[in-house]
Specification:
The chain has about 900 residues and is α/β, with parallel strands linked by helices. The protein contains 27 helices and 31 strands.
């Protein structure tokens, strides 16, 4: 059914005209034809044969496979699927060695390691088991699959389609975005992966209604549907006329035989389902055009499944769940696990307020472009007559690092590969052209500087090379003298291209011509276009919506062998916005995990989404017509002070507050030491049953900075008034390792070893201007807690024989670094006990290892006091505002783990030592 290729001219041993992509397609087609052979012997023979056409193909193909292994999602969903637990699964996996799936699996075997293939196999089987049974007439189901931005979901839904057809589905509709190039890209991928254009000698035969050049037309043959051996497939753009053609086709089938669609199950795959599909006119009791068309298509389906795929599901879960004609995923939801090697929001941006673990430094991969520099680079207003962009210090640094990182990456791989820098300051076309001229002039000046450019590049090299050493793994780091010649070669070869709707020299990546390109543009670069080998992003254009911001993050994805080299320069506020989105994504996945454990579906309980306290909207206003503010709160969560006052007055105030609460505890509360006694030696101490008043009094004397909203006395007073009945607080005094060579005495006989928490050198202090004027010397330690601290009270109770058998057993099996697991444990075994944790932070805390690049010595006059609070569980509340849809009611209205044995219970700082010891 495919077009015939014209004969190619032969020059020597190379067939001229065949590019890598064409040879790869032919190679994988032959692999599929020989699926029964030993893969290793088959591939060796085929590669030798293809080497006669192009001697470089075997090496190129092996490099392609290596990249695929880094990129592919390991999609073993296990507990990541919400489905109707009362519904008997009809599908348990492939039953034969012949069919669409075995052929697709054979292709995967030539590209991927066995663990990745097993992941795709397991996940698609679990998803399909929740889909409608194609052999059960009238069975219809709707579901949602949530992936990650730039992580590649096509491999997953290609496998789902393959298994669905093998199991009895006979019409496949793939809705592939809003743009023709994306539709064509998806078509080409499925053509290759599922062999859509090949005739079959037996079994199920594909009958495609679209190809890479043609979307679905108005007239399509109905008769092939009558043959049970045919599988109709179409890849369709989300365009009103194209969707109308799909609807007309389904209606024509029904006209030919009113019963036939009952026995020809339809699977609808809606890729990027949060875009165009949701109804944006619900508040006006209207239906938006694309939404109506897809509703009409779904209504015409008699037996089948609608599966929405997206990385940003906010609009999907805000669909009206009470409108049976709309596309809310009533029946199941799947969250694909984070792929190995994937770099997301929590890799690039500072999420220290979300984690117990320190992670990489807050400015390792991302930093803020000052408002002053942004004003020079980003035009304002409609009139661009005065727009004259200049190369600022941040942009110059970014360009230099792009060239340095490109040279290092190529030295690691031993070959030239595509390498890109994204420069996005505006959506205005005229602005792109002016900025291009400015960048070109800068590169010309650099090229003409000769030896003078050496010092500026060397300075950038030393400033950046170890910032993200924790992500380097086993990769090599060349010396400056080794890499400088390669950088000099790149300076004269880098291209600067504009990519927008009017460009005549857009960004492209020929297989045989590695590009080193600075891409300047707007919309096409912020959604849709993939920038190959993206190393540096300089991004000043922001958005007010979660989903748009995430989709704009082209730097998310896989960076094989250059994870430590990737960088983002972003406009003021964007780093905080993306850190917030990391929390939103994490909570969404945690909520789905709770649904799984309770055997519920999205039709039983709505998924809440955390709101932003500032300007950000969750999604477009028209997509939030059916949501309400739902319960908020702090129960089960933890808060820690990472901003501390190291002034003499601040140290005296916080030490006095700490000694005051400990003194009260000594006089009236039960005390347990981690040593099992109380001989006055430094130890972690536990005091039981402090009251809400004790905690509030302590916080009033301590003086937590206003940015820590949840730890303000008024906030605690309100929370305990609403949720504190029957609950008390334990007081835990953390002791660090004796190697810190300093102790702190809270009271007579109550001593601890100090912990070491070196502060950051550089961070945004704009929120503390008033505190500084009042005399505070604010330091940012970025993380206070270690993973085991949230259960150190239980460890002490266990050491002293004060746990019952059930609690002891559960504690022994608990993974202390798993935040969700710890929350569940405390809910089950410490439901009425909150935990207040005090840390004496050494006045001489010093950074070690690679952290010396981003941290400094504390240099305080005396030891500082840090606070962490683990709130007791509370029903129906969570911290921060959240929004969710309102479901119809079915009721009447009305890590480092503490070692057992003789080891002392201390904050051993393993979390920090591991980071500092990294290469």
């Amino acid at each position: 059914m495919g077009a015939r290729s014209e004969p190619r001219e032969r020059q020597g041993d190379v067939v001229v005209g065949f590019g890598f992509a064409e040879l790869k397609t032919m190679f994988e087609a032959l692999q599929a034809d020989q699926a029964g052979r030993d893969p290793e012997a088959r591939d060796a023979e085929l590669l030798a044969s293809f080497a006669t056409m192009n001697p470089g193909f075997p090496d190129e193909y092996r490099a392609y496979l290596a990249t695929e292994r880094e990129r592919i999602e390991e999609l073993a969903v296990s507990n990541n699927l919400i489905g109707d637990s009362s519904r008997a699964p009809w599908y348990s996996g492939p039953k034969t060695s012949k069919g669409i799936w075995p052929t697709y699996r054979a292709k995967l075997e030539s590209r991927l390691p066995s663990v990745a293939i097993a992941g795709v196999d397991d996940s698609t089987s679990q998803i399909l088991s929740q889909c409608a049974n194609p052999l059960k007439r009238g069975d219809k189901r709707k579901g949602l699959v949530v992936g990650y931005v730039q992580s590649g979901k096509t491999a997953n839904y290609a496998g789902l389609v393959a298994k669905a057809v093998d199991a009895g589905y006979r019409i496949v509709i793939v809705l592939a975005g809003m743009h023709s190039n994306l539709r064509a890209q998806t078509q080409a991928r499925l053509d290759g992966d599922l062999s859509l254009r090949e005739l079959k000698d037996g079994g199920v035969a594909w009958y495609p209604l679209t190809d890479a050049n043609s979307d679905i037309g108005p007239i399509n043959p109905v008769s092939p549907v009558g043959n049970q051996a045919n599988a109709i497939v179409m890849v369709v753009k989300k365009n009103e006329k194209r969707l109308a053609n799909v609807l007309d086709y389904l209606q024509s089938i029904s006209k030919s035989d009113p019963q036939i669609l009952l026995s020809r199950a339809v699977i609808v795959i809606d890729d990027e389902s949060d875009q165009a599909t949701p109804n944006t006119k619900g508040a006006k009791n209207l239906v938006s055009t694309i939404n109506q068309r897809i509703r009409d298509i779904w209504a015409e389906v008699k037996t089948g499944t609608y599966v929405a795929y997206t990385a940003t599901p906010f609009a999907n879960i805000f669909t009206d769940p009470n409108d049976e004609n709309d596309l809310y995923p009533d029946d199941f939801a799947v969250v694909l696990p984070r792929p190995v090697g994937y770099m997301g929001a929590d890799t690039y941006f500072d999420t220290s307020s979300l984690d117990d673990e320190e992670g990489i430094a807050s400015d390792a991969l991302a930093r803020t472009v000052s408002d002053e520099e942004a004003a020079v680079l980003a035009p304002s207003g409609r009139d661009l007559s005065d727009y004259d962009p200049q190369i600022t210090s941040a942009l110059a640094e970014a360009i230099r690092w792009f060239l340095i990182a490109t040279a290092i990456r190529r030295s690691r791989t031993g070959k030239d590969e595509h390498s890109s820098m994204l420069l996005h300051t505006s959506h205005r076309v005229e602005a792109h052209a002016r900025l291009r001229d400015t960048v070109v002039d800068f590169l010309k000046d650099v090229a003409l500087e000769g030896d003078r450019r050496h010092d500026s590049f060397e300075s950038t090299f030393h400033a950046e090379i170890d910032r993200a050493a924790e992500l380097r793994g086993e990769e090599s780091v060349p010396t400056w003298s080794e890499i400088w010649p390669a950088i000099e070669d790149l300076i004269s070869n880098v291209q600067v291209r504009v990519d927008n709707g009017t460009s005549d020299n857009r960004v492209s990546y020929p297989d045989d011509e590695p590009q080193t390109v600075i891409a300047i543009g707007g919309g096409t670069l912020s959604r849709g276009l993939t920038l190959e080998g993206l190393v540096v992003s300089f991004f000043l254009r922001t958005s007010n919506a979660y989903d748009t911001l995430l989709q704009m993050g082209r730097w998310f994805g896989f960076r094989p062998r250059y994870r430590d080299l990737a960088r983002v320069w972003a406009a003021s506020g964007m780093l905080d916005d993306y850190a917030h989105l990391a929390l939103v994504e994490r909570e969404l996945r945690e909520d789905i995990a709770v649904m799984i454990s309770e055997g519920m579906t999205p039709g039983d309980i709505a998924v809440p989404v955390r709101a932003h306290k500032g300007r950000l909207q969750i999604t477009g206003a028209g997509k939030m017509d059916f949501v309400d503010l739902v319960h908020t709160g702090l129960g089960g969560n933890r808060r820690q002070t990472i901003y501390l006052d190291s002034s003499a007055e601040g140290i005296e105030r916080t030490q006095d507050a700490a000694r005051r609460i400990v003194g009260n505890a000594i006089g009236t509360r039960h005390r347990i030491d981690s040593l099992g006694g109380g001989a006055g030696e430094p130890a972690t101490h536990l005091f039981g049953e402090l009251s809400h008043t004790d905690l509030i009094d302590f916080l009033e004397h301590y003086g937590v900075f206003p940015v820590d909203v949840a730890l303000q006395p008024a906030a605690i007073r309100k929370w305990t008034g609403d949720h504190g009945d029957g609950k008390t607080w334990d007081l835990l005094l953390i002791s660090g390792p004796s190697s810190n060579n300093a102790t702190f005495e809270y009271a007579e006989g109550v001593r601890v070893n100090v912990v070491s928490r070196a502060p950051l050198k550089e961070w945004d202090q704009s929120r503390f201007e008033d505190a500084a004027k009042a005399g505070a010397n604010v330091v940012n330690i970025r993380a206070l807690m270690s993973s085991a601290d949230s259960t150190a009270d239980v460890a002490i109770l266990e050491r002293n024989g004060l746990l019952d058998d059930a609690t002891r057993s559960a504690y022994k099996e608990l993974k202390k670094s798993d935040v969700q697991a710890v929350k569940s444990f405390r809910r089950g075994y410490r439901p009425d006990n909150g935990l207040v944790i005090l840390y004496a932070i050494g006045k001489d805390s010093k950074p070690a290892g690679v952290s010396t690049a981003t941290r400094r010595s504390m240099g305080a006059a005396d030891h500082l006091i840090g606070i962490a609070v683990v709130f007791p569980p509370a029903e129906f509340e969570r911290d921060g505002d959240h929004y969710a849809v309102t479901l119809k009611s079915i009721f009447d209205p009305g890590d480092d783990e503490i070692e057992d044995g003789e080891t002392e219970i201390v904050d051993d700082e393993a979390d920090y030592a591991a980071q500092e010891a990294a290469p």
